[in-house]
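Ticket #281: bound-state structure for N-(5'-phosphopyridoxyl)-D-alanine.
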Amino acid sequence: MLEYLNGRYLPRGEIAISPDDRGFLFSDGLYEVIRTYDGRLFQAQAHLDRLNYGARALRFNRVAFSYLTEVAQELIQRNDLTKGDSTVYIQVTRGVAPRTHHFPPPETPLTVYAAATPLLTRQAELERGINIIFVPDQRWARCDIKTVSLVANVLAHQQAQESNAIEAVFVRDGVVLEGTRSNFFAVLEEVVITPPKTNYILGGITRQVVLDLCKKLSIPCQQRPIFESEINQASELMIVGTTAEITPAVQINRQRVGLGKPGPITRFLQKAFREMVSSTS
Ligand code: PDD
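RESOLUTION: The complex was predicted; output attached.
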C-alpha cells in the first residue's frame, strides 16, 4: 500500500515516524476517519472542517487542511480502492521536537499522515443489530476534539469485547453521551433523540447526517440529554458513525431493547441513509 507522509507518497514499509513526534510522546494530535463508497469520499469537507476545528482548539500552527481531500483521492486511486468501500485515516500531530510539555517553536512543521484501507461492511450487524454496554465516562472534558488520545476509549471498548458486546457507550453522572467510536440515538415515544453537542461528545458527521435525514423525512427528532434512567423506556437504540453507519442496538447491558430486534424508525433511517449514500457521495 502507498501511504502519505508530509507531502510524499511512500510504500507503507518506508513510513517512519520519529520517536520525538509529539503524537507519540503526548498524543498531541488529531485524527479523522473518512469513508468511501466505491471510491467516492463521503462527507469529506465536513471531516476536514472538524479537523480545522480541532487544530484551532489545540492551537496548531496550521489550521487549513482542505488540501487533504486531494490527498485522500490520490490514495484511493493509487491503491486501487475505487471499487467497494474503504476508509481514509488521517492523523495530524504537533510535529517533531525534543520533549517539552509546552509547545515547540512555532515554525515546527506538523506531522501529516494519511492512509487508505479497504473496509468490510458489517452487514450482519446492520441487519440484526448489536449488543452494547454502558460504561462510566473516564475521558477528559474536551471530547468535542477528535484527538488521538484514545486510551479511555480503548479500555471501554475492550470491556465491551469481554462482555460480548460490539460497542461501549459512555455515561457521565447518569447522562448517556456517546459510544467509544460512535454517537448514540434513542427512540422514546416515537421521537428520535440524541444528546446535544457539548464538550462531552464528538460532533459526529454521521450524527448530523441522521439529524438532517430526520428533518427531511419529517421524523420528529430532538437534541436533548438522555438519562440512563429512561433507557428502559426506549423502543429503539442506534449507534451511528463513519464505520457503524446506522447500527441498531438490540441489547443494552444484556437487557432487550424494545422487542429485541431493529425497530421501524431505525430501518427507515437505514434505508434513507443508503439512498443518500448512493445519490450524493
Ligand atoms: N470514530 N464519537 C466518537 C468518540 C468517535 O470516535 C466517532 C468516530 C464518532 C462518530 O463520528 P463520525 O460520524 O464523524 O464518524 C462519535 C471513528 C470512526 C473512529 O475512531 O474510528
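RESOLUTION NOTES: The chain has a mean pLDDT of 97.
TICKET STATUS: resolved
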